[in-house]
Write a structure and sequence with these properties.
Order of helices and strands: HEHEEEEHHH
Distance between the termini: 63 Å
Number of domains: 1
Helix content: 25-40%
Strand order of the largest sheet: 2-1-3-4-5
Shape: globular
Number of helices: 5
Oligomer: single chain
Structural class: alpha/beta
């Protein structure tokens, strides 16, 4: 019996430690962001917002000052390190001359979830957009709302960047970056991926 237990102990001691599962959830996921596409969705009529491009340029500078690199193209793949940041404003000037604008800043990424397989190991994957951060407001005024919209986007983006900064210091993000150091390489453009895919399809 002692011999059996000794063999069992030796075998068990030789087995690798059980893999540890670490979850990076909630606000901590913001700490993984390295690159962002930045888009402006200006759907405001009646000259209620005339400086959308200037606001976008300002936000880009805020990103880059905090080490968040802005890409000027559509990425081939999005994840928790490559995201899409959107500046959106929708509004009109009423017959009474009042401007009413709904503004939103949000950060989203694409998510893939395996939801099942078949007997032949074919797989099914659900694909969708995940919202990592958002802030919105409704603004009204008799004149244009350039200053009000600029202040809103400034506050919203500042809050996002602050949360990203603190998330980068979380235990889970530090552990992930220790095991998976960033390469710093910009993501592949979708156009390059499409060209590669066309070549592959043409060679078959």
């Amino acid at each position: 019996m002692r011999t059996v237990w000794a063999i069992c102990f030796c075998l068990c001691a030789a087995l690798p430690a059980r893999a540890q599962q670490t979850y990076i959830t909630g606000t901590d996921a913001l700490g993984l962001i390295e690159f962002s596409e930045l888009t402006l969705n200006d759907m405001v009529e009646g000259e209620c917002w005339t400086e959308g491009e200037r606001t976008k340029t300002k936000i880009r500078l805020m990103f880059e000052q905090k080490g968040l690199q802005v890409i000027d193209y559509k990425a081939a793949f999005y994840g928790y390190d490559v995201v899409l940041s959107e500046l959106t404003a929708l509004g009109v000037r009423t017959k009474a001359g009042i401007c009413a604008v709904n503004a939103e800043f949000r950060v989203v990424t694409r998510s893939f979830s395996d939801i099942g397989t078949t007997f032949y190991n074919d797989s099914y994957t659900a694909v969708g957009m995940v919202e990592l951060f958002s802030s919105n407001t409704l603004l009204t005024g008799a004149g244009d709302l350039d200053d009000e919209l600029d202040r809103f986007f400034d506050r919203a983006v500042s809050e996002f960047l602050a949360k990203r900064y603190f998330a980068r210091g979380s235990d889970s993000v530090i552990a992930f970056r220790t095991d998976n150091p960033s390469t710093g390489r910009p993501p592949m453009p979708f156009s390059d991926y499409q060209s590669f895919a066309d070549i592959e399809n043409g060679s078959q």
